[in-house]
Amino acid sequence: MKKVAPALGLSLLSLSGAAGAQVVPERRFDIGIAVTNSYESNILRINPDAPVSPGQSRDDFRATPSITIDVQQPLGRQAVFLAGSVGYDFYRENKQLERERIELIGGADLSLGPCSSRVFLSYGRQQSDLADVLVDERQINTQTRASYGADLGCRTFGPLEPTFSYEHERVKNDDPLRQSGNNTKDSFSVGLNYSRPAFGTVGLSTSYVYSRYDRTAAFPLENSLKAYSANIFFEREFGSQLLGTASLGVTRVDPSLPDVPDFQGLSYSADLTWSPGTRMQVAVGISREAEQPNLLSISYAIVDSYRAELRYALSNRIRLSTGVDLQRRLLRDSALTAGPVLITYGRRVLLFAGATYQAG
């Protein structure tokens, strides 16, 4: 399994990957400066007919300057690594949302015989997505996410590779009024991959995710979520320019609160990356997943995403990117939770463009 920057949603897609691939680690030490500018059509995450409070704007521009890091130090066949970014969000209109934005992951890649493993720690800190805040609540809240886990794969049967992964994640909110949104998640996955250079990689996996909100005096009931999924994953290079990946799964979501509907259906993702030369990449993708919002009133959400991105290397040190991300989110709640749920179906359009300079 490949772990990149902290994927902090509760994804019920395939957890397949290449944990067992025997790759000789290379030394990397890349420190960079990045600036990302973005526009969101519904930054406040409110319904189209909902009023906007004075001093706020439904849509907004955000600028995020940051320092990026990508470091890997080989230790024989093993390696330690640290990757991510530390930055700050500035808004043109909604100044109350300005906050630090930190995404870091570090750990070790371990190799022993035909087996390889990754153990990792991740940390993220930023302003809460306002989809996780009710309209009549305080919108100022810094959310912190921390996780640890491990991925394991063994090529002990020729082209067959059994895999296993585990991750524990903890989400906390700084705002005293948001303590009921603190939650914990444990994710498990086992799978079997089959790889051939001329064929690509196909994998089967099954996963189990157990998420639960903290019990508080204000809401002493158990509010948890159990999700089960079975998936098939496929990855293949088509010539030297095209890379395709796809995942299709059957997902079941069982919330603990009464009146919250179960979800049974398909989860999926598909990504296509085209590299017509050494400088340019074009990537497109779609996905559907179930996630646990940072909101006590909501047991889970079904999220559909459609995205496209263009990346261009202006030189060995300067990289440019631009793209669009369309998202639809359907929320599932219970009548037992306090407070009105004013947003049951959210849409947003995100346009972004950025540049990164790698110092070395």
Structural features, described:
The chain has 360 residues and is mostly beta strands. The protein is built from no helices and 16 strands. It has strands at 28-40, 60-75, 78-91, 99-112, 115-127, 142-154, 160-173, 183-196, 200-213, 224-238, 242-255, 263-274, 280-291, 298-313, 318-333, 345-358. It is globular and about 60 Å long. It starts with 27 loop residues before the first strand and ends with a strand.
Outline of the structure:
Helix content is 0%, strand content 62%.
State the main characteristics.
disordered N terminus; single chain; 16 strands; mainly beta; 0% helix
Mean pLDDT: 83
Number of DSSP-assigned strands = 16
**Biggest sheet features:** 16 strands, antiparallel, barrel
Taken in chain order, the helices and strands follow as EEEEEEEEEEEEEEEE
What's the alpha carbon Rg, rounded to whole Å? Answer: 21 Å
Strand order of the largest sheet: 1-2-3-4-5-6-7-8-9-10-11-12-13-14-15-16
How far from one another are the termini? 28 Å
**What general outline do the C-alpha atoms trace?**
globular
- Coarse structural class: mainly beta
Percentage of residues assigned to helices: under 10%
Strand percentage lies at over 45%
Number of helices: 0
Query: Which residues form runs of ≥5 with pLDDT under 50?
Result: 1-21, 335-344
